[in-house]
Amino acid sequence: MEIVNIRIDDRLIHGQVAAVWSLVTKATRIMVVDDLVVKDIVNKEALKMACPKQCKLSILTAAKAADNLCAGKYEGERVFIVAKSPKTIRSLYDAGFHMEQVNVGNMAGKQNTKMIKKAVSVTEEDIENFLYLAEQGVKVTAQMVPTDPVQDFVELLKAAQ
C-alpha cells in the first residue's frame, strides 16, 4: 500500500480531487475520513457519484481508517486520504496511523475563522490541531493544486499571528 496524498479539504471529493489530484497521484482508492459523513446517507451517495471511475471509494471513521491502514488492508493500492479538518487528521494520527505529511487544500471561511491564505481559513482549534501534528513530526504543507508551489503551512500560520 502506498499513501499518495493526505489532504484536508472541506469539500472532500470535488473537481480538484476527482479530476486533478487523483490523476496526478495515480490514486486507485480515495479514502474519505469523517466520523459524521459515515452516518449521512445523502452525503455518502454524493461522494460515490463524485468519485472518479478509476478509484475505489472508502468512507470511514478516523478509528476505522487507522485500523485498516495499520493492518495493511489496502495492499497493492495507491490510497488518497481526504478529510474535512485537521481535527480528523489528528484523530487518525492519535488512533495509530502516523503519517509523514499532510496537504492543506480548501478550508472555507466561516464564523470565528482567520484567513491564512486564499481559500484557507482556520479556527483556533484548527491552529491547535495543526501545531499538534507538526510537533509530532508531521510536515504540514499548503498546495491547492499540483501545479502550485508547496508552502510550509506552519510558517504561514506563524506569519498570520
Automatic annotation (TrEMBL):
Residues 1-161 form the PTS EIIB type-4 domain. It is found in: Cytoplasm. One of its GO terms (molecular function) is kinase activity. Transmembrane segments: none annotated. The keyword Kinase applies. InterPro entries: PTS_IIB_sorbose-sp, PTS_IIB_sorbose-sp_sf. SUPFAM superfamilies: PTS IIb component. Its main location: cytoplasm. One of its GO terms (cellular component) is cytoplasm. Signal peptide: none annotated. Keywords: Cytoplasm, Kinase, Phosphotransferase system, Sugar transport, Transferase, Transport. It comes from the Bacteria. GO terms for biological process: phosphoenolpyruvate-dependent sugar phosphotransferase system. This is PTS sugar transporter subunit IIB.
